[in-house]
Structures
1.
Amino acid sequence: MAKVHNFSAGPSILPREVLEKAASAVLDFDNLKLSLLEISHRSKNFEAVMERARSLVKELMQLPDGYSVLFLQGGASLQFVMVAQNLLRERGKAAYIDTGTWASNAIKEAKIFGQVEVVASSKADNYRYIPKGYTIPADADYFHCTSNNTIYGTQIKEFPTSPIPMVCDMSSDIFSRRIDFSKFSLIYAGAQKNMGPAGTTLVVVKDEILGKTGRAIPAMMDYRTHISKDSMYNTPPVFAVYVSMLTMEWLVSNGGLEWIENINRQKAELMYAEIDRNPLFYGTVAPEDRSWMNACFLLKDPALEPEFDKMWKEAGISGLRGHRSVGGYRASMYNALPLESVQVLVEVMKEFERIKG
Amino acid sequence: MAKVHNFSAGPSILPREVLEKAASAVLDFDNLKLSLLEISHRSKNFEAVMERARSLVKELMQLPDGYSVLFLQGGASLQFVMVAQNLLRERGKAAYIDTGTWASNAIKEAKIFGQVEVVASSKADNYRYIPKGYTIPADADYFHCTSNNTIYGTQIKEFPTSPIPMVCDMSSDIFSRRIDFSKFSLIYAGAQKNMGPAGTTLVVVKDEILGKTGRAIPAMMDYRTHISKDSMYNTPPVFAVYVSMLTMEWLVSNGGLEWIENINRQKAELMYAEIDRNPLFYGTVAPEDRSWMNACFLLKDPALEPEFDKMWKEAGISGLRGHRSVGGYRASMYNALPLESVQVLVEVMKEFERIKG
Ligand SMILES: Cc1ncc(COP(=O)(O)O)c(C=O)c1O
Ligand SMILES: Cc1ncc(COP(=O)(O)O)c(C=O)c1O
Ligand SMILES: [Mg+2]
Ligand SMILES: [Mg+2]
Ligand SMILES: [Mg+2]
Ligand SMILES: [Mg+2]
């Protein structure tokens, strides 16, 4: 087996050239004769990394003035807390749509800080579609949505126009397609799916929405603290920020969001076409809401799973099992996954049909 | 210049063999033909890393039953928040000693959650000593101390016997010497000084002290959440945990805390002997409280700084400048710094005396 086709849902595949540069920086960074892991985060060498990472985000998002870019720790799950703590006013209300496990975890954390109105949910239908046509209450402090539901394989294709600040968890499809990022007042994303390794979380926030809750916020939990120190209030996760910077450089130098959107569309079309065509498999998600990042599908006859598993593993495919909470299969096709890997998977599915069909 | 003598205060020097293994894992981990950065944190390969890291901590600390070991994100600064949020009861009180910038940041965060009694402080004397002979109030919820004050170069040599749970920030001297760790109910340490790279924070907590505040705690901020999921409630900082594991393996395989304590004593004795002996320099800290990790010193004639700086830089020394808030010099002599590097620095100081004295 020459090569692994890595369909892991996250942490997940990164470009090979990024990994090579990262490994080299662990041994010797910037010809300092020191590892990237051994230098002060206040050194000019690392400050340049942080600065470059933040400017790549601005370039990729084409943000107007008035936004700050942060690289924090704690994962997207800590943002579930910080978003509410920084935006939900004392005796205020927040609006959420519940589109999956992560959305519902975000809702749970927000409830610690105040009232939460769930304006729409597809939970009763096992999260197999994205609710549409709901009303966002104009009197709530913010509206929270999840752009891509990693576990269920649904993705918001058209974002609503919100009368209040719109917050989005983009953890699992950040930088996978062109979007009008300026529609959002706050965007966050754990790096480990489409932007880098585990260990850092991107937060992009419009400064004007902050400081309005009337609540005392611990310095470490207050976005304004981190903004005022350019993400260097305390020691940042140096390596994870560096690898995220390298991954964004890879993306930009290859053609940016337009380039990657085109490839991601091709991969998704190929994958879903086979799921639909192949009589042994079926997709679990409403077709119009299918995620380009995570394609969830099942075998019509679950008894065939062991044989199918054996076959894709022999083809060098890894990470294809669905999330432990839902089972079945999930092909995660993040930016760094080449079209070729999807072709290999599709060939395996076809071959499986020939044997079993 | 053949080699860098890395006196950086953190992130700081790591053993060369650890860096080599880390770089190799970034390219191919466990012969999976996948990078450590690309695999699921739920894979058995990474679960083994997390398990091993946690058991190395228990081995090094020789902890009795009843403690949980966590690897979290957010840095030691997030622990300033979590400690108070998890231990300070509604309408309760916490006791802190104020021995430096980090202690005082910890106090600031705790005040968000309730009353803080500062039982002793050396602030008025520019933090140049560790207060002693103070009384820990038996009616407080916990007592918080900082074992090593990274910026000021003081270190607690003998911990008090506390009538209430004792919490300690050991960020800058964790695993540098033998200690009776069972005296503490909670220990935390940002990895990036003596245990690994930036990006993960060790927390060791006695289970029985948790769940008593009467306060609603967001899941991500609640130690019990992370304990119940063995530090895998959300995606852990995979690479930082792995490198910390490698560093602890290096420590244990060489002889553990007894071995490193012996080396650290030698380095500190050599360093302070020269600071005392050399008429051009003086130490800033009360001799009985001098840190083995961070030796702070000044030139009697500050006008000589540029010349001295030139000289140690030419000798391959890096990271010797004091914290930007205090100036002067700080030789950080963490576990991975070889005795040889201190010898080189001492030689430079002697040579400087020959030229200038
Ligand atoms: C959409 C989404 N949000 C949040 C999370 C949680 O991220 P983290 O593990 O970094 O807390 C995930 C993780 O898979 C996710 O897919
Ligand atoms: C003793 C001590 N505590 C806390 C911190 C803050 O750690 P972090 O940057 O990981 O938040 C430091 C950092 O230097 C430290 O030396
Ligand atoms: Mg989901
Ligand atoms: Mg079909
Ligand atoms: Mg200090
Ligand atoms: Mg002297």
2.
Amino acid sequence: MKAEIIAVGTELLLGHTINTDAAHVARALSALGVDLHHACVVGDNAARLEACLRAALQRSDLVITTGGLGPTGDDLTKETVARVLGLPLEEHADSLRRLREYFGDRPVGENQYKQAWLPRGSHAFANSVGTAPGCAVPAEGHKLVILLPGPPSELLPMLHDGVVPWLARKTGACIQSSMVRTFALGEGDAELRLRDLTGGANPTVATYATDGEMFVRITAKAATAGEAAALVAPVREDVCRRLGDHVYGVDVENLESVVVPLLLQRGETLTTAESCTGGLLAKRITDVAGASSVFHQGLVTYANEAKTRLLGVPEELLARVGAVSPEVARCMAQQACARYGSTWGVGISGIAGPGGATATKPVGLVYIALSDGGRTWLRVMRPHGRYMGRAWTRQRAASHALDMLRRAMLGLPVEMEA
Amino acid sequence: MKAEIIAVGTELLLGHTINTDAAHVARALSALGVDLHHACVVGDNAARLEACLRAALQRSDLVITTGGLGPTGDDLTKETVARVLGLPLEEHADSLRRLREYFGDRPVGENQYKQAWLPRGSHAFANSVGTAPGCAVPAEGHKLVILLPGPPSELLPMLHDGVVPWLARKTGACIQSSMVRTFALGEGDAELRLRDLTGGANPTVATYATDGEMFVRITAKAATAGEAAALVAPVREDVCRRLGDHVYGVDVENLESVVVPLLLQRGETLTTAESCTGGLLAKRITDVAGASSVFHQGLVTYANEAKTRLLGVPEELLARVGAVSPEVARCMAQQACARYGSTWGVGISGIAGPGGATATKPVGLVYIALSDGGRTWLRVMRPHGRYMGRAWTRQRAASHALDMLRRAMLGLPVEMEA
């Protein structure tokens, strides 16, 4: 089955909205073994949408549109699809009932009702979050057009609870893939280590880098999920062996989703003491559901007085070496650990920028310390002449803290110059 | 000038990477008054990329590709563009020099060198962050193909520092747009208030919703930036008047980028006391450069003991009403304010989920309190039967806290049931 995605929305062509929907749909199609060869974006313009739809229906068996199903005047997708397929719109009783339920005792705006009209012969997908249902519309030659709402909060549950199970019954071949995630390894370095693997056709091995992390995706296609998985497994093991302890996880979401379960397994706790990351590390740890067992408190000690008051960092030390120093980061980590009775303490102090540099301390310089009450480890992030911005610096510093904790728990070397 | 974007990368079609590049490029083109009618995605496949390029060059004057410029074997964009345009690749001295500088005293991997080869006649755009330069390649009929690297950290500075100024000299018409941002206003409600404005052609008025916020974009096109701005201004004022104090800012990034400058102006400070948001509010505040003047510390009091120790929330109160209660949220806000000597204190306590619900407290229930030392205000987020997930609940709760603070500073009503 060949598929393509048409994302509808002028806000996408103006760059006001990032097209996350296409990525969600693409991932779901890939897991179903549906080949996606085209994806495009078109504005809220009936004529151009019609041209895209007609071209797509010639090339592909399945066309998935995202966006343009809402109550407003520039929501045109359903009307345009119905016209291209020559189908009338009809009131859909179940969608009307859900729309009324959604509004409860609030009045239903008159512009809302058009959302309960669907092209004749459609299979409806209920919207568990918003008002506009999705639908699968039959087209000539056993082709299909599936219409999904634009807001990701509505599209995602509909895709996973409605569309994927429904499509799974229509498809045969299966794709399985695995993602090997590493920290502190360059893409070029990884490519050299994996060079003879990246030319393969089934499974394919691809490296890519995001936010300073490097990932390797191994993807295989076969008649069944089991056969595809059997093709992936040995290559995944080979990749992991070649990349060594840079690998922090396979098919995991991120560092925090590895570190929190590790702490849980060991029955250990962590207290964070953050200056330049300003709560980002605590936020990432508590992104993981169930973090409350291992994370009881975090201190955002942004000002020097807060470092002294909440962590007991000596005023004299702050005056002598400055807040952005190995000594203060170490002291923050040690005190986070000792004062708050945690197994582990992290201290982060640096200059996230864009302001705040001094003659000896450039923007982008961050010290990250980890303490277990006895030992204290330190990493230094130096900008190496290329300041990557405030958000990048903060995200990277929090990642280093998580990687240090991971490596310390596993007995691996922790310190490095980054 | 008509433009289109071709994003190159199998990871985009598999949904492993979200196509943020296209949004960045689209926004830049829009600001230059370049019409973007098409955007598409193609995998790392020379034949399909070639087909896309040939079609794009027929329809458009300017084709911008993103991705496929790196050192690895599946980076094919430059080679494919050169072949389609019939141009040889030539070593580019300045790019070679920069590549050598980038590696410094580290050895340059042999696979790196191809990045310093460009199609004959290209204008190079230096890569300030990575190794692959971009370039503008002349095509027949005064058309242009611009090649940009895929990683957003490389694409963004090249786009803004290199491509935009270079293209600005080639374009005439200008687009100006304004974004009115609101909080706690539904998209349907906004559309009814703005109905007679959304049909306009120049300026256009479009509403859209993301992450529970509702935005209105007003966009005008004219021969000069000044004329376009003059078309936008009166409509923007009309939109703001109709949406009233739901509007938290115009052409601002988010709530925190409004709240931090307001605090700065007033010479006031804030201390945060977070339970279920786990540092997210502190993180959002410290996302804003310069927050250190108004934000000295934040407490992430995830466990009950931490609420007692760091904020003095009475154990008796926690035992009697539970951590997720109006009383505890109020106490957290009051203590954050009083104990830490801040003008304002925020307390957030709730059940972000997916676990943690009780018979009387559903997942998604969050209490958000704000105190100025004298008065204390409270908001309640109730899931209304539809739990929107952990990330949404946390993000929304932090946004409510920021909106409460904004409204309190401006003397507007603060409390609501959300």
